[in-house]
Each structure stands twice: as C-alpha cells, then as structure tokens.
Amino acid sequence: MTRSDLVEELAARFGQLTHRDAEFAVKAILDAMNDAMVRGHRIEIRGFGSFSINHRPPRIGRNPRSGASVAVPEKRVPHFKPGKALREAVDQRTPDL
C-alpha cells in the first residue's frame, strides 16, 4: 500500500472527509511520526506495533569490487516491531505454502 492508496482508503472509508482533508491527515500523521523518530523517540501504536531507533556501531566493511577495507561509520536506523495482534492477524490470513 502506498501513501496515495492510504489517502484513497481514508477518503473512501469516511465520506465526510474530502480527498484533500484525507491527504492532509495522512501527511500530518506521517510528519509527526518522522519528527519523533528523528528526535530519537519511540512510537508505540497498540495493536499495530512499535517504531524505535537501533544503533549500529562502526565496523570495517569490504569494497566488493576491489576487496579493499572500508570504514563504515556508526548509524542510527529505524526499526519496526509488529504487535501481537498484527502478527496474529497476518498469520491467520497467510495461506499455507
């Protein structure tokens, strides 16, 4: 699902919202989540999951083309952990392979 799909779904589900209002609402929520993550805060949405920041320490990597050692600096990366309700819902809807 893309951002525009999310806007369409929100506008379709709530008839009193115009497409423009739905787009504004989605943008406001995603911007607020983005700002919180940039500040290092954890976001928890009950029944859905939590977003947090993981720290990756510096390491020595290899250039695949030349094989030379490359210093990879430390990073802060976003991490999503699904909640129990989401995990169970996905598991129930997944066809047996």
Give your account of this protein's structure.
The protein is of the alpha+beta class. The chain folds into 2 domains: 1-41; 46-97, HU Protein, Chain A, CATH 4.10.520. The chain has helices spanning 3-13, 19-38, 84-93, and strands at residues 43-45, 49-56, 59-62, 69-72, 75-82. The strands form 2 sheets. A 3-stranded antiparallel beta sheet has the order 1-2-5. It has a two-stranded antiparallel sheet with strand order 3-4. The model has no long low-confidence stretch (mean pLDDT 93).
Low-pLDDT segments: none
Strand order of the largest sheet: 1-2-5
Label the CATH architecture of the largest domain: Irregular
Helix and strand sequence: HHEEEEEH
The overall number of domains is: 2
Could you tell me how far the N terminus lies from the C terminus, measured between alpha carbons in angstroms?
Answer: 23 Å
Task: Give the overall pLDDT as a whole number.
Answer: 93
What's the tally of helices?
A: 3
Shape: elongated
Query: Roughly what percent helix?
Result: 40-55%
Please name the CATH topology of the largest domain: HU Protein, Chain A
How would you name the CATH homologous superfamily of the largest domain? Answer: IHF-like DNA-binding proteins
Approximate strand percentage: 25-35%
Radius of gyration: 19 Å
**Class per helix and strand makeup:** alpha+beta
Question: Which tags fit this structure?
Answer:
three-stranded antiparallel beta sheet; 97 residues; 3 helices; two-stranded antiparallel ribbon; elongated; alpha+beta; 28% strand; 2 domains; HU Protein, Chain A
